[in-house]
Amino acid sequence: MNKFKFEQRFKDLPCRALVAAFLCSFVFGVGTAHSMDGLGKVATPDELKAWDIDVRPDFVGLPKGSGSVEKGMEVWEAQCASCHGVFGESNEVFTPLVGGTTEEDIKAGRVAALKNGSSPQRTTLMKVPTLSTLWDYINRAMPWTAPKTLSTEEVYAVTAYILNMGGLVDDDFTLSDKNMAEVQNKLPNRNGMQTNHGMWLVSGKPDVKEKRCMSNCKPASKITSSLPEYARDSHGNLKDQNRLVGPVRGSVTVADAGQKKSAEPKLSTNSGESLFKANGCVACHAVDQKKLGPSVVAVAQKYADKPDSKDYLAGKIKGGSSGVWGDMPMPAQGHLSDEDLSALSAWFLSKKK
Amino acid sequence: MSFDIPSDTPLGQVVRAPENFVSRSDIALVNRVNDTDRRSFFKKAFAAAAVGTVAASPALAAAAKSDPAILNLPEHSKGLGQPVAARPYGLPSKYEENLQRRESPGLTRVNASSVSFCPLQGLFGVVTPSGLHFERHHQGWWDIDPTQHRLMINGLVKKQMVFTVDELMRMESVSRIHFIECGANSGMEWGNVAVPTVQYTHGMLSCSEFTGVPLIKVLEYCGVDLKKGRFILAEGADGSSMTRTIPMEMVESGEVLLAYGQNGEMLRPENGYPLRLVVPGVQGVSWVKYLRRIEVGDKPYGTKDEAIHYVDLMPDGTHRQYTSIQECKSVITTPSGGQKLLAKGFYNITGLAWSGRGKITGVDVSTDGGKNWKTARLQGPINDKSLTRFNLPWVWDGKSDVLLQSRAVDSTGYVQPAYRALREVRGEKSVYHNNAIQSWRVDAAGEVHNVHVG
């Protein structure tokens, strides 16, 4: 019923205000108007395309395209290997992606190592039940310091290369929107998930049921696990992690605590240091210990006394480098401005001991 | 007899005179102490006690001396203090700097995808100061310009829409107190004792008053199809663009909020400024920060953090997927691991209890490792899916056989389990959603240790 006819029908009623009120509630009731009308705007197709990037296990949302294992290896070595290792096996930065699965697992869709504990770590390929998950995550969040910069082809290619490293597809394989479902049926842990538990909904049924016993509930307690003495200082001096007043103090767990305060998380005003932290350098470098790459101190020791060391280092950071400190290449940091590069390399060199 | 000022005795803490007199070696020891103003008080006091006639009782010996903290007026009683707005945004006292969020060394290898733990050992009541709220970032944190932030609603709705933060803040709002706990909280402790203090065993836990708009109101405004649309996907705007599936039942309850406020101010950047999802009772990873999009769908999404991580390994080699609820749990925060009792005598055992399925209805405390229990006093406010504070008076007799435990009960009647019960069902490697009873051992020196008991 349209509004005009409705008003015509009731125009002779003595109290027009009543009609208006009635009309109002009627219109509100059928949902053609809302008290919040005017808030928000309808999303444009381009806006939806820009943000609606998720890919579901049934591949709803998967863009058309393809990428080869060969191309994937190229992308991998340039953008992924520095954190994940050349064969996806590295444990230096993240838990390994590849390993721990067998031909048998691929056939069964269940990873035996998850039950028999034969793998020291649970790699991504040991766990992931859905291929969409890999594609979606690489597309939205990789590479680590520059997420959402891979093309659709590169995402297919990198996904294909990971599958290749896991022995799921051959070296000459090309992954595409057409064969994703087929490859899904090769995932080693595709049958390894269960949702038969009470922990998804507030109303779910808990998996244990204990009684509220109040007295003489069990024999005297035995201590079954405690922190070994050598780990007493594993979290610094606990005295410095407790208040100076109150019913308790922190235990002294570091002997020469008077001199050495445990590390305080303080933001630095040093722009070199903040650049170091803000640009993902810490994924591979630490100040005074070797991680995937050399420590800052080691770099400083090597270059600080050389002429033009600041410019040399700035160039290495900007352009990337390989072979100087080991096999692991350092990716180029082309996004840094010259000022930032200068501050960063000056800070590196200031760490000479 | 010997007397010793423990090396960790803080300045200003009155140490009781031990007995009727002090030996020569003790005087020598006191004299070796650096001669700061306050310590010289002790030195004089003990030296005086050593000179022949001695007060009849140790208590009197201590009481007879007047306290220089009273006799010598401090600077702040005799001078002019700081003006208003000297610190336009207030900060804690400099004497409180020990209470900070901290990382657990060796837990993660990359600090932009890591955790900092909340110092539960020093907090009061139930609300976590925003600056001490635990952090979990998946790809680093950002301070996002709120004028440029948008929320998109798409999927199974009549009108796919975009909202500015202005528009969300114009809507009718609610404020509610809820806990947020990471699904991996206490995960390091699943197999055996791994960390020393409650900050690291339970510190991926915080509680705030959140302000925002019930998500269901905004979905209804967009014309949501609740018949088909039984799931939502929440997505963040940060590099990780965190995604999690949330069942529509939770949204329909009205409890899920599009939150911008936290403890009376806007969310902190580390906690998702300017917009995050609040999903009461559910693990923190679902409370997507920097929230940019809600998609309504008819199936779960199997995202990275519900297909590779945050899945619970069972003894048969399967993983439980979409485990979300943080079940009923509690922990004693004082006295707790890594703390030392000042002396024998009276203490208030205090701690926190919470449940993702409802309200806390009771907390029991044991001092003998779970053989006998006493019911603690619950301190208000007692809110649904919120931290609840409990207290129990206790006198420590100086003995070393103390094993402190707390056990919470929630409004569904569920009783917080012992490790034994959880491991019987979940095996040795489950790690996530560990809500087992925590034990603290008090030794003869008053030091408190993290232990597991059988």
Structural write-up:
The complex is a heterodimer of chains A (353) and B (454). Chain A has 353 residues and is mostly helical. Chain A contains 14 helices and 6 strands. Chain A is 36% helix and 5% strand. Chain A is globular, with a radius of gyration of 30 Å. Residues 1-30 and 260-269 of chain A have low confidence and may be disordered. Chain B is globular. The longest helix of chain B is centred in the first third of the chain and has 14 residues, at 37-50. Chain B folds into 3 domains: 1-78, no CATH class; 99-320, Sulfite Oxidase, Chain A, domain 2; 329-451, Immunoglobulin-like. At the A-B interface, strand 1, helix 3, helix 6, helix 8 and strand 4 of A face strand 3, strand 4, strand 12, strand 14 and strand 16 of B. Strand 6 of chain A pairs antiparallel with strand 16 (339-341) of chain B, so a sheet runs across the interface.
Question: Under CATH, the topology of the domain at 66-184 in chain A is which?
Answer: Cytochrome Bc1 Complex, Chain D, domain 2
* Rg of chain B: 26 Å
Largest interface: A-B, 103 and 132 residues
Major β-sheet of chain B, in short?
Answer: 5 strands, mixed
Strand order of the largest sheet of chain A: 2-3
CATH superfamily of the domain at 66-184 in chain A: Cytochrome c-like domain
Stretches of chain B where pLDDT is under 50 for at least 5 consecutive residues are 1-12, 14-56
Low-confidence stretches of chain A: 1-30, 260-269
Which oligomerization state do the chains in this entry correspond to? heterodimer
Strand order of the largest sheet of chain B: 4-3-12-7-8
Kindly name the structural category of chain B: alpha+beta
Mean pLDDT of chain B: 89
Examine the secondary-structure arrangement and name the CATH architecture of the domain at 66-184 in chain A: Orthogonal Bundle
- Look at the structure and give the CATH class of the largest domain in chain B: Alpha Beta
Q: Per the principal axes of the C-alpha atoms, what is the gross shape of chain B?
A: globular
Number of helices of chain A: 14
- Would you identify the CATH architecture of the largest domain in chain B? Alpha-Beta Complex
Secondary structure: number of strands of chain A: 6
Give the rounded overall mean pLDDT of chain A.
85
| Share of β-strand residues of chain B | 25-35%
